[in-house]
Amino acid sequence: MRAKLGARGTAALWAGKLTTGLSRGLRRGGGTTLPGDVSRWVDPAILTKLSRALRDGTVVITGTNGKTTTAALLRHILEAQGHPTVANQAGANLVFGVTAAIINRASWAGELPATIGLFEIDEASLPRLVQEVAPGTIVVTNLFRDQLDRYGELETTAAHIRRALTQGPEGMTAVLNADDPMVAALGDGLPRVIYAGLDDASLLQSELSHGADAKFCPRCGSPFIFEGVYFGHVGHYRCPRGDFTRPPPDVRATKVSIRGMDGMRLRVTDGVQDVDVDVPLSGLYNAYNIVLALAAAKALEVPLAQGAAALRDFTPAFGRMERTVVEERPAVLLLAKNPTGFNEVLRTAIQFGHATSFLIALNDRIADGQDVSWIWDVDFEQLKGAARHIVLSGDRALDLRVRLKYAELPDDRLEVVADWREALARAAKATPVGETLFILPTYTAMLELRSVLTRDGALQPYWQGGPLDAKP
User: Which of 11, 48, 58, 354 is most buried when burial is the number of CB atoms within 10 A of its CB?
Assistant: First the structure.
């Protein structure tokens, strides 16, 4: 469908598309953000104008962890049902990145070969995006401490999201994680809510981690009683005074079986159908991404069985359990950018990947958060009984070195390497034949490492796709 742009909108579209061509032609980036800046400078309403051409509207996904994977899962489901999407799949999740994504997908005449927009968005940017694209569905994955120098405390982040949910268009559906109390509370008073969660009691842990965040009832402030947690503060909870309790999930996984690093099977029900879902992802945190994607598909009237069937051949998003080869050693990239996310990535690598060789990279740039004190809330002690060799790299590699000293990792297992290419080579060299190298970078460190691997032909550019025949 062709968007009605007018002269100013057409100029904005052309300016953005020319910027993309220059950016990629000069190898200055993937054109995932700057075209949006340029287009919006020419016409601040360009995103609204283009999004109106999407016949089936837009879906917006926000939250601390899991946005990119949940969006990729949902996109896979929708396209399998014959609904072509436009998405900011390269992970540029500010409004400028969303604008660039739709600019890049549109033709020079303003035609969009898509019927639905699927956009992940930074939590603080959500209200603005909702105002511009009027989404029919908003998905909220979870809320954890993340980049406190940018967002402040969790209550501030939750307030941004709550404002967007209450100001959304009439008929909008909120898809919320029932097991995160701060996210579940966002559903109060909303007319259309679908809750998603896990109901596999065998996987609940009895104790909260020291880095757990939402421990108190949002209504009365009493400490929650947790029957158990899956990770962080995400689990089964209730207020001792009865003021707030976990809402029953509309879409829930009653059984989660993780099969090493190669995949998992979930038994999922929506009260109408019960299905087995096989997905080539690992880690308990990805079980949430899966049920949230299926719940969002339900909001879009995709039957549960069809959504489940579509996920069998899913390919992970870049940097999120992405496989490649480094110096003839199989490797897996696992983005880790805040305490809870890092803890779960470590647990997945060690418990399901039997990891012994690691490359951990920490940057402190704006997109990472410039305050890296959060690494002291990461349970790096998990590495003591597992890691035989760890290469540390990035802008703040020495901070990591100090943290691992306090985690009682022996000096002879640690190596600080500043150069990205050399860090990859050293880590691969230390990985025994037949084992896998686990690469755990923060966001900009992941982009830097992927840039090296892309130049070496091991990966495609992040705005295009993933591995090039990178099978161990």
Answer: 58
CATH code of 6-313, in short, is 3.40.1190.10
Q: Residue 196: what pLDDT?
A: 98
CA pair distance 454, 104, nearest whole angstrom: 21
d(CA 388, CA 356): 5
Residue matched to tokens 């054109």: 31
Instruction: Give residue-wise pLDDT tens across range 134-193.
Output: 999 999 999 987 655 444 578 888 999 999 999 999 999 999 999 999 999 999 999 999
- In this structure, what DSSP letter does residue 407 have? T
Q: What is residue 419's DSSP assignment?
A: S
pLDDT at 92 over 90: no
Residue-range domain boundaries for the chain: 6-313, 320-455
Domain 320-455 in CATH: superfamily? Answer: Mur ligase, C-terminal domain (3.90.190.20)
d(CA 33, CA 51): 17
The kind and range of the H/E element at 278 are strand 274-279
330-359 pLDDT, tens per residue?
999 999 988 989 999 999 999 999 999 999
User: Burial of 268 by CB count in 10 Å (0-12 exposed, 13-18 middle, 19+ buried)?
Assistant: buried
296 φ/ψ sector (left φ>0, alpha ψ -120 to 50, else beta): alpha
d(CA 424, CA 394): 12
User: Which residue, among 293, 291, 282, 287, has the nearest Cα to 321 in the 3D structure?
Assistant: 282
pLDDT at 44: 96
